[in-house]
Design a protein that fits this description.
Blueprint lengths: L2 H28 L3 H12 L13 H21 L2 H6 L1 H24 L4 H11 L4 H10 L5 H33 L2 H33 L7 H17 L4 H14 L12 H17 L3 H6 L1 H26 L3 H10 L4 H13 L4 H4 L1 H24 L10
Length: 394
């Protein structure tokens, strides 16, 4: 048997095991979020750095990565209370304005730097997004609860939806401009969005009905939810829809169909923990070190614009919502990360033939910066807001 083939087949399992060890060490020694360590390790081992992880775009690997993200998005969607957003229109408007300002400023900056208008649009859309994966892992890791936690989660949810809409519009425009095919352009934008949301609604209605029909007792709902997410991800990938939007809508529907997650394990238990290690190592491995170095200063500008708008809008909005400026600013900082969401949206674009990450070095740099620093900023903000639970065992 070829030794190199054996070693290459072991690369990802070994990386996952090593990632868990490194994550535990840095978390226990310095309180650094585990996901930041996973991302940094993936970056070092992948790409043109050490190159030990090989091609990060393997079909089987991508399926696992999408399932890992789908599990997180489902749990994230279940945390979102649409009624709360409806009852707090000032906050909802503030989040929309924040996303619009980030989009506009980054789009203008990219245009001034000579980028193609359509690519600038995509970069700006992604810069305005949130990071459900990073937020959920840090929140669950620290067992955080409170107004800063809830606001950062709800802001991230709204901005993720806005980013998906803007990104899919750009994908449709790219299809039309490059292929001249109106049908394919509509598929890559509106049909993909509607189809993905419809599938999420279907799963969100059917699974609660099925659990109700089976009757008590259902000792652990982790299993049916996890299987449903795997199936939903598989269907959306087979039909070239958006697993990101579908699993998020699935979680939202499950919440509003009054199906409790009380008997399900946080983060989907050990399965979710293993998948999270894989997910964040993949996100790091998908970035190329040469591109990160090439676009670092523009990437830093994108990060600065994003953080500056968040803090500015929070400062102004704090006057009217009665939350207090300190906590409003901390909520803005807590929702800073974007990395995994960006990587998986770009992976969908790559499947359609549009390799944005491969040609836009500043986006790679911004993603790398927020993949490593973002979770640490989130944890810092939640700690300053006194919303992290005391360490277990104390």
């Amino acid at each position: 048997m070829d030794l190199m083939h054996v070693l290459s087949s072991l690369a990802w399992p070994v990386a996952i095991g090593l990632g868990w060890v490194v994550g535990e060490i840095v978390y226990r020694a310095w309180g650094v979020p585990r996901v930041a360590a996973y991302g940094l390790l993936g970056f070092v081992l992948g790409g043109t750095q050490l190159g030990w992880l090989g091609d990060a775009h393997q079909t089987d690997l991508l399926w696992l990565v999408h399932v890992a993200f789908g599990l997180t998005l489902f749990e994230f969607g279940f945390r979102i209370n649409l009624n709360w957003l409806w009852r707090n229109p000032g906050f909802t408007l503030q989040v929309v304005v924040e996303a619009a300002l980030i989009f506009l400023l980054v789009w203008l900056a990219c245009g001034l730097l000579g980028m193609d208008p359509l690519v600038s649009w995509m970069v700006a859309a992604l810069a305005a997004s949130g990071s459900p994966a990073g937020l959920m892992r840090v929140v669950n890791e620290g067992r955080a609860s409170g107004i800063v936690t809830e606001r950062s989660l709800h802001a991230s949810a709204v901005q993720c939806v806005i980013a998906v809409l803007l990104f899919k519009l750009a994908a449709g425009a790219w299809t039309l401009s490059s292929l001249g095919d109106w049908g394919q352009a509509l598929w890559n934008s509106f049909v993909m969005l509607l189809g993905s949301a419809a599938l999420g609604v279907l799963f969100g209605v059917f699974l609660p009905w099925l659990i109700h029909r089976l009757g008590p007792p259902v000792p652990d709902t982790t299993l049916p939810f996890a299987i449903a997410v795997m199936l939903l991800v598989s269907v959306t990938l087979a039909w070239k829809l958006s697993p990101v939007l579908a699993t998020l809508v699935f979680g939202l529907m499950a919440r509003h169909r009054r199906i409790g997650l009380t008997s399900a394990q946080r983060n989907f238990g050990a399965l979710g923990d293993v998948m999270a290690v894989l997910l964040f190592i993949f996100a790091g491995a998908a970035l190329d070190g040469a591109q990160v170095l090439q676009g670092w200063w523009i990437g830093l500008l994108i990060v600065g614009l994003r953080l500056g708008v968040k803090l500015g809008v929070a400062w102004v909005g704090a006057r009217s919502d009665g939350m207090g400026r300190d906590k409003a600013l901390l909520a803005g900082v807590a929702s800073t990360p974007i990395s995994v969401f960006v990587i998986l949206l770009l992976e969908q674009a790559r499947v359609m033939g549009l390799d944005v990450l491969g040609v836009v070095a500043p986006l790679a740099a911004a993603t790398w910066l927020l993949e490593i620093a973002g979770p640490a900023l989130t944890r810092w903000a939640l700690k300053r807001a006194n919303e992290l639970a005391p360490p277990e065992g104390r």
